Amino acid sequence: MQSHVSKGKKLWQGAVYLSVAAIVIKVLSAIYRIPYQNIAGDVGFYVYQQIYPIYGVAITLSTYGFPVIISKLISEKINDRSEIIKTAFWSLLSVSSVIFAIFYFSAAWLASMMGDAQLQVPLRTISFIFFVIPFLSVLRGLFQGEEEMLPTAVSQVFEQLSRVCAILLLTYFFIDNGHGPYGAGTGAAFGSIFGGFVGFLVLLYFYQKQRGTAKQLHINKRSLVIVKTILLSGLMICFSNLLLIIFQIVDSLTVLRGLVESGVQIESAKVMKGIFDRGQPLIQMGTVITTSFSLVVVPLIAKVQSEGRQDLIQKYSSLAFKISFLVGAAASVGLAVIIEPTNVMLFKDNTDSLVLAVMGAVICFSSIFLTTSAILHGLNKVVVTVVHVCLGFLVKGLFNLILIPKIGTLGAAIATVIACVVCACLNIYALQKLNALPKVSLAKGIKFVISLIVMAVATFLWKNASYFLLAEAANSRLGNTCIAISSVAVGTIVFFIVITLAKLISEEELAYLPKVSKLAAFMQLKKSK
User: Fold this and answer.
1) Do residues 153 and 143 touch, judged by C-beta distance below 8 A?
2) 361-364: long-range contacts (C-beta < 8 A, 24 or more apart)?
3) Closest listed residue to residue 377, CA positions, set 440, 279, 305
């Protein structure tokens, strides 16, 4: 009994490590784009966002996909651990080499498909990122299979931190030395590769510290079954995490070309695409809280699923969904209200604020999709999320082709929102069919809408009052920063008060969340008084 309890505590501790790492990574990933855009400009930001999806795919596979499957194989087949590790490494190295070769040698064609031949060098540089996949995936999978999550968490944080520092330093160096936005994009690609290398060194340090030698990795057998499981299952399990990256791939291939074909001059089109890409860090910052909560709640679902506790599955799923919906919707509405000062605060001007406001709606629906996908994974319904992402990809591509020639980047933003809505709704429908998610009551739905309206009105009034009170200072970047930050504070406080009064989240539901359970106890204490 004691060993079972200790194992449970170890698993929870590991989940906390990975959750904290995920939050740090998301924050860094969102924040560094802002100084990058400030240094490289909108065209430089456009160049980076054109090549970013390639990095995003590689790093998602080596963080969420392959390590999870490798760890699962290791935990299920302790006696075959060496075979799994060796087979995983060589199979991933072979596949990564092929993918590298495809991207490297087709860079000219891919740049042409994107409508910008100057992207060839940045594309070739970022293709080297695929060589880090086998090294990161195997060591992370090994540690996670042994329920040691700290090495994975530390490597992820160091990888991202070193990547961000390298990107910003190299970007500044290339811009300062007159290499322009494409040189900056190439520097950012080098920085991303450097980050992956640092992440591997951190994992290697932990491995040598705990084992002293890597001789355990030498075996002579290989297994085709293991290769198939790692490659197919690894790709499928991280498919939901690739949703926004897949949408960015669609944008990379269609936005610039669509703008140029509709009559926009290519240099102007690059600037427009760069401004459109400002929405990515806003989306990432908006989804930090929702995804971090789901990372804590969702592991419970897999546990109670194995125990056959359908009542608890619905309870945990409902809680994770409710948090993602509440926080995601509040972030989307709040961002729409304060988009002008936020745009100036982060990116120096308020160009295309309407486009960014529309992109803000992605925060809500992508949060719902990511949370419900995690729940479906906990219920062993991974294939369902893969199908939904594929459908979302088709919807995004179709609406991009229809809307961009008519309304430019606003069309691309609307297409992203529609695709996210489709994916989120399909996930919700699938969970309700599995009886894992209850239907939302009309009364709670009305309360929720009222809460959003109250928050939006309060934030809008504060924002406009701030413009009036600050007068001349309101035209400066510092003034807009004060307005944006204070408006966020006001909106957050008002929304929290309203949803508390409306009892949209009960004390019982809060009690399921670590740390937050103290708030539930406090609320119960106040009620008893």
Assistant:
1) no
2) 361/332, 361/336, 361/417, 361/420, 362/244, 362/279, 362/283, 362/332, 362/416, 362/417, 362/420, 363/282, 363/283, 363/286, 363/287, 363/328, 363/331, 363/332, 363/335, 364/325, 364/328, 364/329, 364/331, 364/332
3) 305
The vertex-217 CA angle with 216 and 221, nearest 5°, equals 115
Residue type, 497: I
The pLDDT, as a whole number, for residue 211 is: 64
Closest among 185, 153, 152, 158 to 171, alpha carbons compared: 185
Q: Distance between CA atoms of 265 and 150, rounded to whole angstroms?
A: 50
Written as one letter, the residue type at 284 is Q
- Tens digit of each residue's pLDDT (9 = 90 or more) over 404-421: 999 999 999 999 999 999
Distances (CA, A) of 262 to 256, 315, 358: 10, 50, 21
Q: What is the DSSP string of 332-343?
A: HHHHHHTHHHHH
pTM value is: 0.84
Mention every residue, 6+ apart, whose C-beta is less than 8 A from residue 79. none
pLDDT in tens, 147-195: 677 888 888 888 889 999 999 999 999 998 888 899 999 999 999 999 9
User: What pLDDT sits at residue 298?
Assistant: 59
